[in-house]
Amino acid sequence: RVKMNAEEILVRAVELRKNFCLYFDELECDALCKDKTLHRVLRNVNSQLLVVRPDLNVAAFEDVTDQEMQSGKGMHFSIHCYNTTTTTPSAGSPVAFSVQVGDKSYYMCCERECGEMIVRFKEGEVPKKIPGESNIIFFKKTFTSCCSKAFKFEYSMEQGMFLAFEEEGCLRKLILKKMSKDEVDETMKMSL
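RESULT FIELD:
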């Protein structure tokens, strides 16, 4: 099967009528449609919560008090689950992340900057339907077969790139990290 982009129209023969004319029906291009939304916090292997600070353009895992968690500023995520027109169970479940900070909503995306992939949070909403590839989609997979309550998130546009954290001074900053599919790395282990 050849992967088609949104500009191409796929067709299939549906009927051969008595005048021997072949009639066609349009097929749907690969697309993602929002199915449901989960509301969760994301924890790393150290039980720290992911906190987004758009004013500082940073997302990092932090120790959070119960009082800070109740205020919830930048740490209560909406995980938008998508259905896909193509089924690839091994790829994982397509998801997108958004977070509310004050009265604004921010979505997670990845961008290339100076030859490096960077995780960003941009103001706006995630779309209900995505016609093709998107820099906001990650594939949610179980972390290991024996650890079904923890997950890893692979960037949809670059195979082998996973959400992870990296120590930067006193911060455990959210990054994309290149890993082989069989490699187990605790920095990309996340609980919901």
